[in-house]
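> call design_seq(struct)
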């Protein structure tokens, strides 16, 4: 299995000829080294409706004839824009051809902000994704604050890789993310959602150091870099 981090919260996972991308935000992302037109996937997973998570979703989905998987309201909106969609909701799971996806809760907000029209469109509840693919379990927490059910999720699932936001301001900061990583107890924790913009500037290496002091394994993956698991 190959995992590619594209910066911010964007993660691509490929295995056995299938590829999915989570929260594609490449255009306008100052740290991204990959262009949206170079992404080849069959599925696009969206944790919530904010522009820094759905930015390239329609472009990638339409060009690849890929399916967008998101919470019901966001999937409906994307369907109205001409995308092939599959709506889900928190706590629900579904078996796709690449593997199983379960939506978990996340404590955040979710809306499409139309700046020119000064309009905000409700995007459904924010979430995370537990993904079982190729015999591995991945957990993308989405944008979230700390909540104690993360411990339950960790106890009920044997998680190989967890993608945990550390940026603070909009999500958990490093201290809360460290607690979240302890509760999730993944074999490998990868920090995401940091350094893209000044308000979420963090030191990911310091976060990894603190993880290791807790007996946990973590890794900083730079935009464009790959992991093999």
């Amino acid at each position: 299995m190959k995992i590619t981090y594209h910066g911010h919260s964007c993660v691509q996972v490929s295995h056995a000829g299938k590829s999915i991308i989570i929260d594609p935000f490449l255009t306008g992302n100052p740290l991204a080294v990959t262009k949206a037109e170079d992404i080849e996937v069959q599925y696009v997973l969206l944790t919530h409706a904010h522009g820094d998570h759905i930015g390239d979703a329609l472009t990638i989905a339409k060009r690849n004839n890929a399916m967008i998987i998101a919470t019901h309201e966001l999937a409906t909106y994307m369907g109205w824009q001409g995308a092939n969609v599959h709506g889900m909701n928190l706590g629900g799971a579904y078996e796709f051809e690449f593997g199983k996806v379960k939506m978990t809760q996340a404590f955040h907000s979710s809306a499409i902000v139309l700046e020119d029209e000064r309009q905000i469109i409700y995007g459904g509840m924010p979430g995370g994704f537990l993904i079982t693919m190729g015999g591995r379990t991945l957990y993308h927490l989405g944008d979230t604050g700390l909540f104690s059910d993360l411990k339950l999720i960790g106890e009920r699932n044997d998680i190989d890789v967890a993608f945990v936001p550390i940026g603070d301001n909009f999500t958990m900061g490093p201290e809360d993310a460290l607690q979240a990583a302890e509760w999730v107890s993944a074999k490998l924790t990868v920090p995401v959602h940091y350094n893209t913009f000044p308000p979420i500037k963090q030191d990911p290496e310091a976060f990894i150091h603190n993880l290791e002091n807790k007996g946990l394994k973590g890794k900083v993956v730079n935009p464009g870099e790959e992991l093999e698991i």
